[in-house]
Write a structure and sequence with these properties.
By secondary structure, the protein is mostly helical. It is built from 6 helices and no strands. The protein is 76% helix and 0% strand.
Length: 148
C-alpha cells in the first residue's frame, strides 16, 4: 500500500466520522492504514511498558535499519513513541527525550514523506490523521488498564 493513495479529503472524512462518502470510509486502503496504525500503537505501548524509553529508541532505530523500502511503519512507531514520551513530559514533568523531539525526530520522518513525493501540506495532514488514530489507541489502552 502506498500512503499517497489515500486522499486528504478522505482522511478528513474519516476524522469527521460519517460526514463523507461511505464507500471511501470502507476502502481497504484506509482500513489497512488504520489497522497498521493501531497495531503500531499497541506494539509501541507494549515495548514502553517492558523496556521504557530506551526500548522505544531501539524499536525505532531497528525499524529504520531493517526497512529500506517502505519506512512508513517506522514513522508509525515514531509517532506512537513521541506521543508516549510527550505524555510522560506532561504528567511527570520529565524532560522530552531528544530522540523523539525536534530535529532528530523530524530528520527521521521527513525523508519518508519526501520519498513518497508528498508535499508539505499533504504530509502535515497525513501526520495529523496518523497521530489522531495512534493517540486514540494508546489512550484507550492506557485508560482500560488504569481506570480512574
Amino acid at each position: 500500500m502506498k500512503i499517497k493513495d489515500i486522499s486528504v479529503i478522505g482522511i478528513y472524512c474519516l476524522m469527521l466520522a460519517g460526514a463523507c462518502n461511505p464507500v471511501f470510509a470502507q476502502s481497504s486502503i484506509v482500513g489497512n492504514l488504520i489497522y497498521d496504525l493501531r497495531k503500531a500503537a499497541i506494539s509501541t505501548l507494549s515495548t514502553y511498558r517492558a523496556s521504557g524509553i530506551l526500548g522505544l529508541r531501539m524499536q525505532s532505530t531497528d525499524c529504520y535499519l531493517k526497512r529500506s523500502f517502505d519506512q512508513f511503519p517506522c514513522v508509525y512507531i515514531d509517532i506512537a513513541s513521541r506521543y508516549i514520551d510527550q505524555g510522560m513530559v506532561a504528567t511527570n514533568n520529565y524532560p522530552p527525550d531528544e530522540y523523539f523531539d525536534g530535529d532528530k525526530y523530524y530528520s527521521r520522518i521527513g525523508p519518508v514523506f519526501l520519498k513518497d513525493k508528498l508535499n508539505r501540506e499533504t504530509s502535515n495532514e497525513l501526520m495529523a490523521f496518523m497521530t489522531f488514530v495512534i493517540a486514540q489507541e494508546i489512550t484507550s489502552k492506557v485508560l482500560k488498564n488504569n481506570p480512574s
